[in-house]
C-alpha cells in the first residue's frame, strides 16, 4: 500500500505571511497599516482585543484559569492521598517498607485502570443514579 502525496490534499502553502516570524530588512516594504520607517514596537494584544476575539472578559478568563488550576490541584491531591499518610499506615499496621510500597503501587494501578472506566460511565449514563 503506497501513500500518494500531493494528490487531492490541501494545496495551501505551508508558510504564509502570517507565519513569517523573522524580522524584515529595513529596505523591504511595510506590511499593510504600517508606516514606512516607523520603529518596530512589538506589543501583545490588549484586553479589549482579546475580549473581542474570544467573547470572554479578562476577569472571566482569569477566574476560569484559577478554577482549572484548582481542579488540577484536587486531582493530584486525590492521587497522592495514600503517599501522604504512608508512614502512618506503616506504623498503625506494623508493616515494613516493602509492604507499604506494594499498597501504594496497588492504589495507583487501580486508580490508573478505573479512572477511564468511571470517566466513560460518567459521560454515558446519568450521574444522579449513584446518588441516593
Describe the structure.
- The model has no long low-confidence stretch (mean pLDDT 76).
- The protein has five helices and no strands.
- Helices cover 53% and strands 0% of the residues.
- The relative contact order is 0.04.
- It is mainly alpha-helical.
Strand content: under 5%
Shape: elongated
Span between N and C termini? 56 Å
The low-pLDDT segments are: none
Biggest beta sheet summary: none
- In helices, the fraction of residues equals 40-55%
Number of strands: 0
Order of helices and strands: HHHHH
Coarse structural class:
mainly alpha
Radius of gyration: 28 Å
Mean pLDDT over all positions: 76
Q: What is the helix tally?
A: 5
The multimeric state of the shown protein is: single chain
List keywords for this structure.
mainly alpha, 5 helices
Q: TL;DR of this structure?
A:
This protein has 132 residues and is mainly alpha-helical. Helices cover 53% and strands 0% of the residues.
Write the layout of secondary structure elements.
Elements: H1 47-54, H2 58-79, H3 81-84, H4 86-93, H5 97-124
Helix pairs in contact: 4-5
Amino acid at each position: 500500500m503506497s501513500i500518494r502525496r500531493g494528490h487531492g490534499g490541501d494545496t495551501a502553502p505551508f508558510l504564509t505571511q502570517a507565519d513569517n516570524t523573522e524580522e524584515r530588512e529595513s529596505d523591504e516594504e511595510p506590511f499593510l497599516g504600517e508606516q514606512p520607517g516607523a520603529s518596530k514596537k512589538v506589543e501583545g494584544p490588549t484586553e479589549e482585543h482579546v475580549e473581542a476575539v474570544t467573547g470572554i472578559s479578562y476577569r472571566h478568563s482569569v477566574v476560569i484559569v484559577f478554577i482549572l488550576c484548582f481542579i488540577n490541584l484536587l486531582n493530584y491531591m486525590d492521587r497522592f492521598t495514600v503517599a501522604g499518610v504512608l508512614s502512618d499506615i506503616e506504623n498503625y499496621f506494623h508493616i515494613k517498607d516493602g509492604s507499604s510500597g506494594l499498597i501504594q503501587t496497588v492504589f495507583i494501578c487501580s486508580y490508573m485502570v478505573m479512572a477511564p472506566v468511571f470517566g466513560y460511565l460518567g459521560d454515558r449514563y446519568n450521574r444522579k443514579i449513584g446518588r441516593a
